[in-house]
């Protein structure tokens, strides 16, 4: 036996002796099978250390349990369709490969095969005990596979001695059984689990055995205990965190990934911060030795958001050095990996985007949604990628349910990208099946269509009426804040939902809204002002106040926020008195630059008419300088509030000139003058 193997076996021997000291009583639920040693022989029989090693290491887990139980997915990074956290799901899906490896029986290495004539009765007894042990393990895992609730697993605990491998599988199975339940069911099952008489026994054994568990069992036990809802400040959780710190150098990449995903959902404390720091140091040491992009992505999960920029840069350089090895699965996993450590690497993201566009047909719904959400977290915008995803979604959305499409629309709304074809197709579905929308869906759809300023061409009124009818059915039980949000979204789209408006304008509803918490009060006031302006300018069933085009009186000239535009207007018009900047109207809107023209399209001084709306011969040109965020990404299409403002100014008799200001700033002065001349003095 080589020196390294002897050291390994000797270490296992010392660990086993230590365990026997911790749990000396054979009647204890945490006790192990008594280890028998045999006299050292030279004829090929097991040595004492080999016997102890084989007693400690082998464990048989039925392959049928891993393959057919239905608890684990073969897909490495699938996202749960329920409310389970995405990081939980990724870790759970890694259980298959990892537990299969850890559960294979350890085969001993014998230098000289034993002679048939030298087989003793002691060897026969040892083989028989080993068979009996495997038979018990087989029976245990067969019963564990049949468990349907955490309490079933705890009932099983009382009938079998608890080893470290049993603890890990018990806890992991309990977590897998609860994670797919609804929130109410999960809460009920957890309550029963905490009250079960054998739960505290299992936790006590986990705490005692943690120091002697194999690395994967320790990592998965910590992960399952945290996900099962055991309070973080308990001695059990803190003990597991501390032992993970002590044995961190033993962990392989998979175990590090499990620990890292566990820490992501935990509150900051000394043990969590220490373990996170240790993970980052270990990752930094291992980066140069990693040759697989998949393992690099696993390491990226371990780094966390708080990892130093220098470490993130090292990972980026390592990935870029292997970017020619980028595969399709690597590409879509890279988005979430970069998002988890909050690092926007444009070269990596652009390369991954190209790979995804080439293989868009092969990506399932949940992966596409994860990509969009990761882009939003990273503030990454790629119009080619978004267009490819939107076009594919429009062609495949008939295979998705309403909830999935609404999630997709919300993701695009957060990105500021307007998937016109998808929104048109979904609008048709809503018109034909309005009952498919619940209140949560109605609010999300109204927000997406209003923020992105999109209505189906030729069916806009029908679509809004269907949404109004769906909302009306929920009015008796809708919260006031949600009612205001719905009415606000309708107003942005230029539609006044009369039943919802009548309920919103009741004194008790308005009073309750204005007494909301300070965090929401500012947003509530903004939405109420917007509704009021829309009622004044677009209302037909209520008296319309004479807002007109009156301008607020200003005590001093208003300073322009757009000096480049002011300079170009002066060069174009030749006189500063022919335009005004930052004009505020009494209706609540403001105009960045105002130019007055007579019937012959001749510019007249602005100071000659404070209320040109009273003179039909005078037209007001409203020049609006807008940032990129006011337009849908990758287009000139105005977003919701800007579109509403343009609509209102048109109702007030203004001709609106829209200027994309960041692009305007890139023009040379001569080009800028020619551009404004074409917009202010069109040929037709």
Helices and strands, with pairings:
Elements: H1 3-22, H2 48-56, H3 63-68, H4 86-93, H5 95-102, H6 121-146, H7 150-157, H8 164-179, H9 183-195, H10 199-209, H11 215-227, H12 235-246, H13 253-264, H14 270-286, H15 293-303, H16 309-321, H17 328-340, H18 346-358, H19 365-378, H20 383-396, H21 402-415, H22 420-432, H23 439-451, H24 460-472, H25 480-492, H26 498-504, H27 507-514, H28 518-538, H29 563-573, E1 580-584, E2 590-597, E3 603-604, E4 619-626, H30 640-651, E5 654-660, H31 661-666, H32 669-680
Parallel strand pairs: 4-5
Antiparallel strand pairs: 1-2, 2-3, 2-4
Helix pairs in contact: 1-2, 7-8, 8-11, 10-12, 11-12, 11-13, 12-14, 13-15, 14-15, 15-16, 15-17, 17-18, 17-19, 18-20, 19-21, 20-22, 21-23, 22-24, 23-25, 25-28, 29-32
Task: Give a verbal description of the structure.
The structure is a single chain. This protein is mainly α. It has five domains: 14-21 and 30-57, no CATH class; 62-106 and 122-283, no CATH class; 290-378, no CATH class; 381-538; 563-680, Endonuclease, Chain A (3-Layer(aba) Sandwich). Helices cover 58% and strands 4% of the residues. The protein has 32 helices and five strands. It has helices at residues 3-22, 48-56, 63-68, 86-93, 95-102, 121-146, 150-157, 164-179, 183-195, 199-209, 215-227, 235-246, 253-264, 270-286, 293-303, 309-321, 328-340, 346-358, 365-378, 383-396, 402-415, 420-432, 439-451, 460-472, 480-492, 498-504, 507-514, 518-538, 563-573, 640-651, 661-666, 669-680, and strands at 580-584, 590-597, 603-604, 619-626, 654-660. Strands 1, 2, 3, 4 and 5 form a five-stranded mixed beta sheet that branches. A hairpin with a 5-residue loop joins strand 2 (590-597) and strand 3. Helix 7 packs antiparallel against helix 8 (164-179), helix 19 packs parallel to helix 21 and helix 21 runs parallel beside helix 23. The chain is elongated. The relative contact order is 0.04. Mean pLDDT is 78; it is low at 16-125, 541-549 and 553-557. Pfam families: FAST_1, FAST_2, RAP. Residues 91-105 have a biased composition (Polar residues).
